[in-house]
Amino acid sequence: MNFLRKKIDRFFESRNVFRIRYLLNKIFGEKDLGNLGLDFSNKPTRQRIVQEIINLKNYQSYLEIGCYKNDLFDNVKCNIKVGVDPISGGTVRKTSDDYYKTNKEKFDIIFIDGLHHYEQVIKDINNSLHVLNANGVILLHDCLPNNVYEQVVPRCKHIWNGDVWKAIVECRTKENIDTYTCYADHGIGVIFKKSNKNILELEIKDFSKLKFKDYFYNYKKYMNLIEYSELRNLIFD
Q1: pTM to 2 decimals?
Q2: Average pLDDT over residues 67-90
Q3: How far apart, in whole angstroms, are the C-alpha atoms of residue 237 and residue 219?
């Protein structure tokens, strides 16, 4: 009973914190520009996308950063599976930073779904590139927020993407990686370890300073938005 009471207390505490943060952002934060109208209800799930890529490419090794309840990890079938999470799920109980400090293995496919803060996401991407096999792919979850509140850091809503999108925009400006965003499951970022086919020219030194309005008015261009059918073609390009 005490355990249940504590869970209930934490639930209402988190709701109150979210409510306060939401109100503060509504008053002092970036302007609410409305919803983009992104609808993922009939789009492929991350579970389907990850498994089909593994099958299509005959990938043998899979790394997941941020497992939580193993909604994805448990559904992935691959010869070698490693899941990293400091709290729950996966196979390694560490932060991604600590894991990458000692890891010696390389992987065919890496799925990043850890802390949804730009600063952490860009670190996870850079660390993942070092352990990605030459013909591998990095995927990232939650790249397409629908409105300003879904991307506010710290979190202020139950449905939350964080500012992962800023990391995708930064990657789009790099010459040595080819980056896309698949219109599926709240936005699946896709990074190939090869020359950028469609480099994004932006005069920005600090991508953490990007504003939601930049994304709102330019998201198709900034994110290099593609459908899953296009991603399947890219897998064999």
Answers
A1: 0.92
A2: 97
A3: 24
